[in-house]
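> agent: user asked for a holo structure of the chain below bound to zinc ion. Plan: (1) validate sequence alphabet, (2) canonicalize SMILES, (3) run complex prediction with ligand conditioning, (4) return tokens. Step 1... ok. Step 2... ok. Step 3 dispatched.
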Amino acid sequence: MNGRLRMLSATRAAARRRNYQTGWPSADSFASPRPGDLALRAYCVNPRSGKLRTVKLKFNPNMRCYLCDVQLKEYSVKPKEQTLAEAFTVDHVPPEGLFPKPRPGDLIEVPCCFVCNNRHSGFDERLRIVASMPFDRNEAGQRILDQKVIGSTLAKERQMQFLEKLAASIQAVPGRPGLFRAGKGIRNEEYKDGMIRITKGLLYALHPAIDYLGSAFTATEIRQQSSDEQRGRMTQLMRGEFLERGHGVFRCWRHIDESRQRGAWMLIFYECYGFFVFHTRET
Ligand SMILES: [Zn+2]
């Protein structure tokens, strides 16, 4: 299976040789101000290892979990000691595991409770596998595939069930000899839910006037050979506000209508894997 995944890794070079035009939007013509550091440096507990680590987001007693809205408490634990469900932890949007090292210093951090931070265990790792797999990934995607997917996940034999499913889904790209694609038949809902969580985190950090907790969200994957309708949507969204984290790792475009409490987003990873996310206040 290792070999099959390596085959996908090699197809990017094949795509280049054929001068394959992927049609994904490029951010080169966009410049945008970046939001400043959210807070001063502080310490918090890493929910996975129980270790203290440095973060920029500083606890304050009014903080609530960006996903479930529970009031957070500051609580330090020793490794393996049980922690409180509402203990303050920091979540990164998008997940920090998507960024090749050295990681950028401007990742967006949001407050999260211990339970929400651990509820989707393994998702970050599966997302980086799926997002770095398409043959039209960029250099950042290639680095993550080499450093993390092949260098860590496969080497340490984590996510084996998932990787077996993924390897079984590898297919030739029609009309593109030598190019392969994986992912058909892989459960899509997990990634849609993940994109909605990322959007909620970005709304928390960037648009405090939007009451996203009372909103309904939908997410749609952007197909690799997108339809005219999807291309039209992409073009429209690219007129909106732009945000990038890590060079070419994560790009997003958004239109937010605060008066009507709704928004439209396009989230793109490694210039090859993307979703539209829409939200509107529930009536
Ligand atoms: Zn929570």
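> agent: step 4 complete. Summary for user: Residues 188-280 form one domain. The chain has three domains: 11-119, 123-182, 188-280.
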